[in-house]
Structures are given as C-alpha cells and as structure tokens.
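User: Can you write out an input/output pair for a complex, sequences first and structure second?

Assistant: Here is one pair. Inputs:
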Amino acid sequence: SQQGEEDPQALSIQEGENATMNCSYKTSINNLQWYRQNSGRGLVHLILIRSNEREKHSGRLRVTLDTSKKSSSLLITASRAADTASYFCATDFGGFQKLVFGTGTRLLVSP
Amino acid sequence: GAVVSQHPSRVICKSGTSVKIECRSLDFQATTMFWYRQFPKQSLMLMATSNEGSKATYEQGVEKDKFLINHASLTLSTLTVTSAHPEDSSFYICSTGVRGGSTDTQYFGPGTRLTVL
C-alpha cells in the first residue's frame, strides 16, 4: 500500500496548548496537503506545501516538509475546542491529481 | 471557492438493493472526478477515477461491476453500489479535478453515509 502513516493516531490536549501531528509517506511527491474532517462530515482543505518548500504558515497552522525523510508535520498553535477533528495528510501519488491519504490523527481539544 | 455537492447525504437500504449517489460540481466543469470510501475511524481510500465521457479507472481491489461509475457530463458523476451488502456500509466522498490543473484545484463533496441493513 502507498498509504502514508500519521502519528499519533489520537491526541488529546487542553485549549491553548499546541498540537503537533506527523505524516510520513512512501513515494516522491509534487506536493503534500493537510485536510481536516469533522466527525461524519466532508473534508476541509487546510494547507498545501509543494515539494520545493520547507515550511508554510496559514493563521495558526504551520506545516513543515522534509522530502529527504519523506515526512511532514502540522502544528496547530493555541488550539481551541473547535479544532477538535480528524486531520489527514494527502500526497499526490500516481500523478494527475490522485491523492493518497494518510491514516489520520484524531485530535480532541478540551475546554 | 468551488462547490461540490453530493446527494443524498444519508441513505439506508436493504441488503441486495442498489443505491445511486450523485456528485455535482456546482460552478465549474469537472473533467475528472474521484470517488473515495471511508470506513469508520479510518482514512479515505481512493476507489476510482472517472473522466467525462470515458470509462472509469478503478483502483486495485475495487470491483467495477459492483461500483458502477458514470460521468456523463462535466458537472455530474454518479456512483451506483449494486446489490449492496452490509459490508458496503461506509462513507462515500467524491472530489473533482480540472483537466490540466494541479492537485490544489481539487474540491471535495460533503460525503454520503450509506448504511446497508
């Protein structure tokens, strides 16, 4: 399977704390994306980082990419209860827009 | 941004029946559509890729005769689960791409929850 792995599988923190989740993948990529999924809902695109980029920011989100290690991390700073969701990384394995999703991290932010 | 809709959002059916799920791009032409399946507490797995006017390409292990995909127009793709069984109960999500575009032009629908009794 080309599916990427994410860790931790589950993360429980308090509001105001930072949350870091990691993604490892297996093949060369053009870009890597992070998505959020609230329980039983569709996907929300968070951020895309290209293979020639090492770090990217969007609001409280910070994504890093290390192509030599085939890994990426998503940092959510000053977390809020509304950040409670599952987070998935996705890579464009196979070309032409086919995405392979990681196993996901379930984040629980307690008030 | 672009909007993708799915219908129905939830469906419950009896074992042995067929269920059709629609995926529509509301404000742009989607030359390519992707269908994913997600089991509870698991990740999304790509089932198939469909291009408007041509046959769908199925991923390994996905039965093309069981999961019929029709991409008859630039704004509509349908997934029909034929002779559904309880193990087909899952969350089905479509996404769309634009010919010549990169993956950052892919948009996801809200998903359809299928429960087979």
